[in-house]
Each structure stands twice: as C-alpha cells, then as structure tokens.
UniProtKB/TrEMBL annotation, chain A:
Protein name, as recorded: Uncharacterized protein
Species this chain originates from: Labilibaculum filiforme
Highest taxon above the source species: Bacteria
TrEMBL record, chain B:
Swiss-Prot/TrEMBL keywords: Cell membrane, Ion transport, Magnesium, Membrane, Potassium, Sodium, Sodium transport, Translocase, Transmembrane, Transmembrane helix, Transport
Topology of the protein relative to the lipid bilayer: Multi-pass membrane protein
UniProt note on regulation of activity: Requires K(+) for maximal activity.
TM ranges: 6-26, 60-79, 85-105, 135-160, 274-295, 316-332, 338-357, 378-411, 423-444, 488-506, 558-577, 625-643, 649-668, 716-737
Gene designation per UniProt: hppA
Enzyme Commission number: 7.2.3.1
Name of this protein: Putative K(+)-stimulated pyrophosphate-energized sodium pump
Species in which this protein is naturally found: Labilibaculum filiforme
Length: 258, 738
C-alpha cells in the first residue's frame, strides 16, 4: 500500500503515513491513548508530484504495518523549510483537526478576488507564525511577502485571514463583542497606527502563534503560495458547517483548558 | 366517628383527577415515536442509568426507613412517647414521595427522545410532549400528596377516639403531620443524593471535556455524557419533585394542625379551618390541569414567545386560584373570609416576587449577571468574587418578600390583632398553601426543563438536522430560565413551609405532654409550672407555652440552639460541596481510564462504557449523602435531648434563618455564574474561546454544586429539622436534660 504524504503546517513537517487523513488528524491531535491533545492543520500532498524530493527507500523501509498489523501512523521525512520545497500544484485538500481529533476536509476553491477593506487580519501559519494586520488583500499580501524584494520575506507562505468585524470601519469605537482575541486594545492601537501612517502597509499584532487557532474566527479561508501561484481553501459558512459538518463545528467551537 | 362534611370528598376526588390526568398525559406521551434507532439507543442508555440509580437509591432509603420505623414503633408501642399511627404515617409519606419520583423519572426518561423526535416535526409538538411529560410529574406529586393526606384523614377520623371533637381533630392533624417526616426523609435522600449524582456527572464530564479532551457537551464520545443526562433527571426531576412534594404536604398538614389548634373552641370552625388548606390544594389541582392545556406555542416562536406560552399556563392558574380560594372560603363560611383570603393572596404574591427576583439576579438579560460577565475581563478570580457578592446581595429581595409575607399573612388572618397569635400563624401556614396550591403546573414547568435538556442532548448525540437542533435548543434554553425561577420558588415555599412547621411544633409538644400525662401524674415545665390533665395542657395559649418552656432570647439554650442551627446550614453545605468535588474527581479518573483502556473511543470506533460512569456517580452519591443526611436527622434529636424545647426552637430558628438565606445565595450565585457564561457565549466580551469565556466557564463550574446540590439541599434541611423536631417532640418533653 502506497503511504499518504502529509504536510503539517503547525509546525511544518513532511510526514508519510499509512493512515487516512481523518485517522492521521486524530492521531496527531490526541494520540492513541488520549494522553495529549492539540489541533492540527495539515495538507495532503500528491506524492507522485514530489517523487523527486521524497526519500522513497526510507519510506518503504519505515512506513510499514506495525506489530499486529496496525498501520504505521507517522514517519517524519522533513521538519525544516518544508513548505518552500513543495510545489503549490502538488497540494491537495487541506484538513483541519480539532483538539479532540475531529477532522474536516477543505477542498481547493476559486479565489473570489480581492475584497476592498481598510485592514485585514492575517495569522501566518508557515514558515513563520506572527499575527499581523495589513492593508493588503490576500493575493497582494502573498505577493508582497514572497516576491523577495522586501527586507522581510519568505519563499512561500501559508496563512489564514481572520475576522475583524466592525473594527475595520471603526477601530476605536466598534464594540468587538464577538472577537475572542487577547489584548483587544492593543489590536485597536495597531489599527490606529496602520490607519494613521500612510506608508505603512502592515503591523505585527502578536509575534508568536500559540498553535491554537480559533476556527470560528476565520473570515474567508486559507491561502498558500508565492508570488507566482496561490491556492485558496475557502472556509465553509456557518450555515454549511451546521448542515454538513456539525460534529466538527461543535468540536471546533468548544474550548479546552491547557 | 365524626361525620365528614360532604365537601371533604372533593379532596380525594381531586387527587384522583390529578392521577387520572397524569396517566392520560403519560399515555399521550407514550404514543409518540422515539425516533430513529440511534435515538432509541441513547434514550435507553439514559433510562437504564436513571432506573439503576433509583433502584440503588431506594435500596439505601429502604434500609433507612426500616430502621426509623422500628425506632418509631419502639417509641410508640414500647414507651408511649408517640402516637401509634406515626410509624405507618411516616412510611406512607416516604412511600408516596418515592412513588412520585419513580413515575416522574420514568416519564421524563421516556419523554426526552420523544421530544427530540417531535422537534423533527414542529416546535409546538416538541413543547407539547416535553411539557405534558413534565405535567405527569407535577400531577403525580400533587395527586399522590393529596391522596395520602385525604386517605389518612379518613382512616384517622374512623379510628381515633377522643372525648371531644376538638381534641380528636387535634390528634388527627398532629398525627398526620408526622407523615411529612416520611416525605422529608425521602426528599433528603432524593435531593442530596440526586444533587451529588447530577453534579458529579456534570462537573466530572465537563472537566474531562474541557481539561482532558476538549470534547463538547453531550458528545457521545465522552463516557460521562449519559451519566450527565441521567443526572438531569435524578436531580431536577426526582430531587425537585421530592422537595416540592414535601413542601406541598408539609404546608397543608402544618396549616391543618395550626387550624385545629387555633379554632379549638368551636368544632365547626375547627373542621372548616382544617379542610380549607386541603380544599385550596384540591381546587389548585383542577386549575393546574386547566393551565396545562393553555400551554402551546406557534411554529417558529421566539424565546420570549415560548416563555410567554409557559407563563400563560401558570398565570391563568394563579389568577384563577385567587378567585376560587375566595369561593372556597365563602362556601366554608369560615370566619374572617377576607383576612384568610388576604393571607392566601399574600402567599401567592410572595412566590411571584421571589420568582421575579431570582430571574432578575440570574438572567443574562439583566445587569447583575451582565456585571459578573464583565468582571471576566480581569480573570476568573474576579468572576468568582463578583458572583459571590452578587449572590449575597440577591438575598435581600427574597428575604424581604418572605418578611412581608409573614407580616401581612399574619396580620390579615389575625384581623390585625397581634395578640391573636394562633390564628395569625394559621394565616402564615395558609399563605404557604396559597403559594403551593398550583404546584401541579409549577412543577410541570420545572420538570419540563431537564426533559428539554435531555431532548437537546439526544438531538446532539444523534446528530439530528440543524432545524431540529434549533428547536431543541430553544426548548432547552427556555428550560434553563424556568429551572432558575423554579429553584427560587422551591426555596421560598420551603421557607414558608418551615415557618408553618415551626409554629405547629408547639402543637406537637402539647400532644407529647398529653401523652406523658397518660402514664404520669403531672408534667413540670422548665419554668416550674406544673400541669395535671390533658384539658389543662390543651387550654394553654401559645404565648404561655413559650414562657413555660423559657423560649426567650435571655435563655442561653435558645442562643445555643440558634448557633447550632446556623452552623448546621453551613456544615451541611460544606459537606455536600465536598461530596461533589470527590465524586466528580472519581468520575474524571474513570473517564481517563476508559480513554486509556478502550481504544477507539475518540475516533468513534468503540462506544465508551456509559454504565460504569453511571455506576460511579451512583456509588459516589450514595456514599457521600450519608453523612449530611445522618447529621440533618440526628442533630435535632440530640439538641432536643440535651437542650430541650428551648434549644430545639433555637435550632429550628437558626437553621431556618441561616439556611434560607444561604440557599437563596447559593442558588442565585450558581445561576448567575451559569448565565454569565452563556452571556459571553452569545457573543459578548469576546465570545466563545476568549479569555473572558474561560474565566466564566470556571465560574460556572464553581457554581454547579452551589445551584444544583448544596443550595437545593438546604431546602430539605430547614424543613427536615422541623419535621424531626415535631416527630420527636414526645421524646424531647420526656427526656430532655435541660
């Protein structure tokens, strides 16, 4: 049986596994005996498309059924500069796994085009993980960050756009009721700076991602790519989640204490 | 045998009507389908768990009852310190209370899947199934309660033989009062055991979900989920039912005893005063049934409209009881009709004020709860602090309402003559009866809550469609509101009932002394006064009685009693709180074990061992309820034996004062913490997942045993201590050291 190849985004790692995406997500989130938990964001990669970079012998040797016929859960192939080495075209579906191991598949979608907004909130996921606000729309942002002309750039980027609700229009007075971000006043200050300094296109809000993304705060979806190509994974609407992925959605909305 | 007025027969008739309608509603509910195979399976797990709990509970309670019946038999037949009817009366009180709990639980556990399934058709259908199932509990409680009262009245009226009708009625009513102890003892175990079970499962399950696994509520992968659903029935159906059964019977019986004493001089008036509370309760049953039929909702009804449709039933019943209680008093031709009627209305208004105050302090629509939620911006500690503070402040209105209720019911009944103590106290008793007269529908509204909650759980576990979940969520949310006001009502009625029992304690003491005089030449009161005959004792006024027993604040034994009574409320609370902590800990360990040892629970490949979690909660509840229960029963006996009547009066006053205020505080703090969390979850202060949310979740977890274990258990404590004192009054007057 040919193993599946997964690209884990948080933290980045290329992993071979005999498990299906749902089983792999569950395994990564809660292990076998439920002594750990934590969300997982990963992509399925077309193994054939990246055959030239895969250590096939190593995979064939290690990724085999374990004692008792149990499929091998994970064989780590790479943990450094992984995303940049995978062609965007080789990326298949994106999977979001909740703390308690429920996995939802998100298929690639068509990017709806830039929606004009005075500010966007982006959580970068890979290879770096700051949370920033930007005047640039997702496609512009990915281009800006990966074209290599800026002092700060990365070869390829995966990020998700988060909700700002009324703060986009009125960062000072909008009540921000349903936004669960820590230090909301800091976010307001940053929006003010971004708004008041014409030359400034982005500002860092949080320097380090705690690996806990509240899925309910996702605005439109996930973006992965560079200045040449980009894939978009649209996050389903709440209505669609309630209708088709209710178990996952409930799990995604429940909070845990670490 | 004294001829019973024809009008009396309306009382047993009405109780049978209640039972008939309960059966009719039960059949109607059972006609509904339970839905898909999965829904049936989930419901069957809950049903089995609930019945396993009840079986174990009744086994323990059965042993306890056996011991007490033997003790009472020895006191009655061996030492002539008690009426020979007491063991039997005690037994039937407990038996009927347990039977009501059994029927209520059975119906509730049959109804949850049916409600969820009805929600697949329409909101109104689901409301109808859930509410009529709750009505089974409401009507069984009032039906069995009134049936037991009327049956004992008929039996005792046939067998008791006294020289005068007035004395006979005194003996009958005071004997009947002791059956309240059976109901009280049963309620103690139902409330304390049920409260520990439900919160061990809920807190244990929640801790696993939130701390261990991040699993949402009502997720079938959580091994404690079924136990949590069982707990809703055990605590809020059986526990609440037994609590209110006791208040219902206790208030009627205490008022009848007070009436018998207050109108001793005129046999005709005495009989009317005895029958009045029973007749008001009987008419209340018919009006409750009318109210139940008024509850219906339009499809797509909003939360406010749903609440309105439930309130319509209770409001109509309450409005009608105001009119019909006057008619009853008019037909009975009781003296001071307007005054007694004023006392009844006072009781009703007191209940409404307490209910509204509870809603104000616990609903997220009002500022107190919103303020607690806002304090979450600075962390969990400030949520706890503000919840405690708000809970303490929230005691003011209910306490003042009860104070006003006592003053007005006393003054109305006594025709504003403060010296007319016995009739004034009768007024307080009948105010409690007025408050509880429409219990049939009030309890239906309370019992509806856990049924709707379980229906929501069933819909979640069986992954029913979004429209169905929306309907069950609406019903569940409505149930949360009615549960909070129901708790306020239960506490308020317990306070008034306990007050009526406290007053009737004096009457029981008289009977105790009269019984002593059958074997002794005289009886010497603590103040030196000596009496030689029963007629002499019967003629002593209530105020003189208090003087003879030196019940005044300068007597240290009264103060000692007050201190011990106040302490009892806190110790009892502490014991039940710690019990929940320990039982919840055991549940967490079990769930951890299951995750470790049963592979595939989280992936859904294997089903958890739900039954074991139910067994652990059951075992924890049975074990942990013993110490507080034994304490609640033995302390009044010990205080009576050591400090005498004065000490016992102090104990009851201290227990009632501290217990009532503490119960309101705990119920309101817990309810407000719960709704502060819901307020945040509704999208305020950052909404779900925010730091504010985490802080309010901690507040809610702390508040769980407050509102569902310790607070409600105090209702029983304050009534049970009075009941024990009443039943043991013969022993107290015979053997007290001081």
């Amino acid at each position: 049986m040919k193993p599946n190849i997964y690209l884990n985004l948080t933290p980045e790692a290329l992993i071979a596994s005999m498990l299906s995406p749902e089983e792999f997500g569950s395994y990564m989130a809660v292990g076998i005996k439920k002594r750990t938990r934590g969300q997982v964001i990963f992509l399925e990669v077309d193994g054939d498309a990246i055959e030239d970079i895969l250590p096939l012998e190593y995979i064939n040797e290690r990724c085999i059924p374990q004692e008792g016929g149990r499929p091998k859960s994970s064989v780590y192939l790479s943990i450094y500069r992984v995303l940049e080495s995978i062609p965007v075209s080789a990326l298949k579906s994106l999977y979001l796994t909740t703390d308690d191991g429920r996995t939802m598949e998100i298929k690639k979608g068509d990017y709806p085009g830039d929606i004009k907004s005075s500010a966007h909130l982006y959580q970068e996921l890979c290879p770096v993980t700051p949370r920033i606000i930007s005047k640039l729309a997702p496609a512009q942002f990915i281009d800006y960050m990966t074209k290599g002309t800026e002092k700060v750039s990365v070869p390829k980027l995966a990020f998700v756009e988060l909700q700002l609700n009324g703060l986009t229009e009125d960062f000072e007075n909008s009540p921000a009721h349903n936004l669960p971000y820590p230090n909301i006043d800091h976010l307001r200050d940053c929006l003010k700076i971004l708004n008041e300094e014409p030359g400034k296109t982005q500002k860092t809000i949080v320097r380090f991602f705690s690996r806990e993304l509240l899925f309910r705060t996702i605005k439109n979806g996930f973006f992965i790519g560079d200045n040449k190509e980009m894939v978009y994974y649209p996050f389903p609407s709440e209505e669609e989640l309630n209708d088709k992925n209710y178990a996952w959605w409930r799990s995604a909305k429940s909070i845990g204490f670490n | 045998m004294q001829n019973i007025d024809n009008i009396f027969w309306f009382i047993p008739f009405s109780s049978l009507i209640a039972l008939g309608f309960a059966f009719h509603f039960f059949k109607q509910v059972m006609k509904e389908s339970e839905g898909t195979d999965k829904m049936i399976k989930v419901a069957s797990h809950v049903r089995k768990g609930a019945m396993a709990y009840l079986k174990q509970q009744y086994k323990v309670v059965g042993i306890f009852f056996l011991i007490i019946v033997i003790l009472f038999s020895v006191l009655a037949y061996g030492f002539n310190l008690q009426n020979e009817w007491v063991p039997g009366a005690f037994l039937t009180g407990g038996f009927f209370s347990a039977l009501a709990g059994f029927f209520g639980m059975k119906t509730a556990t049959y109804a949850s899947a049916r409600t969820a399934n009805a929600a697949r058709t329409s909101l109104n259908m689901a409301l109808r199934v859930a509410f009529r199932s709750g009505a089974v509990m409401g009507l069984v409680v009032v039906g069995l309660g009134l049936f037991d009262i009327s049956a004992w009245f008929i039996v005792l009226n046939y067998f008791v033989d006294e020289p005068t009708v007035a004395e006979k009625m005194m003996i009958i009513t005071t004997t009947m009062l002791t059956f309240g102890m059976g109901a009280s003892a049963q309620a103690l175990f139902a409330r304390v055991g049920g409260g520990i079970f439900t919160k061990a499962a809920d807190v244990g399950g929640d801790l696993v979900g939130k701390v261990e696994a991040g699993i949402p509520e009502d997720d079938p992968r959580n091994p404690a989920t079924i136990a949590d659903n069982v707990g809703d029935n055990v605590g809020d159906v059986a526990g609440m039912g037994a609590d209110l059964y006791e208040s219902y019977c206790g208030s009627i019986l205490a008022t009848a005893a007070l009436g018998a004493a207050a109108f001793m001089k005129d046999a005709d008036s005495q009989m009317k005063a005895i029958l009045a509370p029973m007749l008001i309760a009987a008419v209340g049953i018919i009006l409750s049934i009318i109210g139940i039929y008024m509850v219906k909702a339009k499809e797509g009804a909003t939360q406010r409209q749903l609440l309105k449709s439930l309130s319509r039933g209770t409001n109509i019943s309450s409005a009608l009881i105001i009119v019909f209680s006057w008619i009853i008093l008019y037909v009975l031709e009781l003296d001071n009709i307007w005054g007694i009627w004023g006392a009844i209305v006072t009781g009703l208004i007191t209940g409404i004020i307490i209910g509204r105050a509870t809603e104000y302090y616990t609903s997220e629509e009002y500022r107190p709860t919103q303020k607690i939620a806002e304090s979450s911006n600075t962390g969990a500690a400030t949520v706890i602090i503000s919840g405690l503070g708000m809970g303490m402040i929230s005691t003011a209105i209910p306490v003042m309402a009860v104070v006003a209720g006592i003053i007005f019911s006393f003054l109305f009944a006594s025709e504003f003559d403060v010296n007319n103590m016995s009739i004034g106290l009768y007024g307080i008793g009948i105010a409690a009866v007025g408050m509880l007269s429409t219990l049939g529908i009030t309890l239906a509204t309370d019992a509806y809550g856990p049924i709707a909650d379980n229906a929501g759980g069933n819909a979640e576990m069986c992954e029913l469609g979004p429209e169905v979940r929306k309907r069950t969520d609406s019903l569940d949310s409505l149930g949360n509101t009615t549960a909070a006001t129901g708790k306020g009502f239960a506490i308020g009625s317990a306070a008034l009932t306990a007050l009526a029992l406290l007053a009737s304690y004096i009457e029981e003491l008289k009977i105790g002394i009269i019984r002593l005089l059958q074997t002794a030449e005289n009886y010497s009161f603590p103040n030196g006064k000596v009496v030689f005959s029963a007629s002499e004792v019967s003629a002593i006024s209530l105020t003189d009685f208090m003087n003879f027993f030196k019940v005044n604040l300068m007597n240290p034994t009264v103060l000692i009693g007050i201190f011990i009574g106040s302490m009892m409320a806190f110790v009892f609370c502490g014991l039940t709180m710690n019990a929940v902590g320990r039982a919840a800990g055991a549940m967490v360990d079990e769930v951890r074990r299951q995750f470790r040892e049963i592979p595939g629970i989280l992936s859904g490949k294997n089903e958890p061992d739900y039954a074991n979690c139910v067994a652990i909660s059951t075992k924890g509840a049975q074990k942990e309820m013993m110490l507080p229960s034994i304490l609640a029963i033995t302390v009044p006996i010990a205080v009576g034996l050591i400090f005498g009547v004065a000490g016992t009066m102090g104990l009851l006053v201290g227990g009632l004062g501290a217990g009532f205020v503490l119960a309101v505080f705990m119920a309101n703090s817990g309810g407000a913490w719960d709704n502060a969390k819901k307020y945040v979850e509704a999208g305020h202060l950052g909404g779900k997942g925010s730091a504010a949310h985490k802080a309010t979740v901690i507040g809610d977890t702390v508040g769980d045993p407050f509102k569902d274990t310790s607070g409600p258990s105090l209702n029983i404590l304050i009534k049970l201590m009075s009941m024990v004192a009443i039943v043991m009054s013969g022993v107290t007057v015979a053997y007290s050291l001081l």
